[in-house]
Amino acid sequence: MPPMALLRHTLPDGTSHYDWLLARSERVGADERCLLTLRVAQRVDRLQEGAVAAERLPDHRGVYLEHEGPVSGGRGRVARVAKGECAIVEETPDLIAATLRWEGAVAALRVRATREADGSFLVVIAPIVDDAAREVR
């Protein structure tokens, strides 16, 4: 399955958020803008079920799956707090559906992110009861 990562992005002013990076394929070029990216306020790797608000960001370069340290242009620093594998099964401007498993987690999860009226996304995370049924509905 393609890789994913969760980065804590600390800005120069000391505030922080998390950038959730999901690769669309197993082959990720370091300079290729191929990572679907969501900005979230909390660690989604610790959620087994629930909903969080997210902002869709422009696709990030593949290098950020492994990069830790300064971000170019004086935009702060990133540190990877979690990694795992994901499979994006549907992606439109208004919907992202995926299955995923964080490294060290017991269960696979189903993720469905839908665009709200204000342009933000609502990400709903739920366990996959039958791990063999990996399709998101």
Alpha plus pi helix count: 0
Structural class of the secondary structure composition?
Answer: mainly beta
Q: What would you report as the Rg, rounded to the nearest angstrom? A: 14 Å
Q: Got a strand count?
A: 9
Residue share in helices? Answer: under 10%
Morphology call: globular
Q: Helix and strand string, N-terminal first?
A: EEEEEEEEE
Describe the structure.
The chain is an all-beta fold. The protein has strands at 3-10, 16-23, 33-40, 50-61, 69-70, 77-92, 95-102, 109-115, 121-127. An 8-stranded antiparallel barrel has the order 1-2-3-4-9-8-7-6. Strand 7 and strand 8 form a beta hairpin. It is globular, with a radius of gyration of 14 Å.
Descriptors for this entry?
mainly beta, eight-stranded antiparallel β-barrel, disordered C terminus, single chain, 9 strands, globular, 137 residues
Topology (elements, then pairings):
Elements: E1 3-10, E2 16-23, E3 33-40, E4 50-61, E5 69-70, E6 77-92, E7 95-102, E8 109-115, E9 121-127
Antiparallel strand pairs: 1-2, 1-6, 2-3, 3-4, 4-9, 5-6, 6-7, 7-8, 8-9
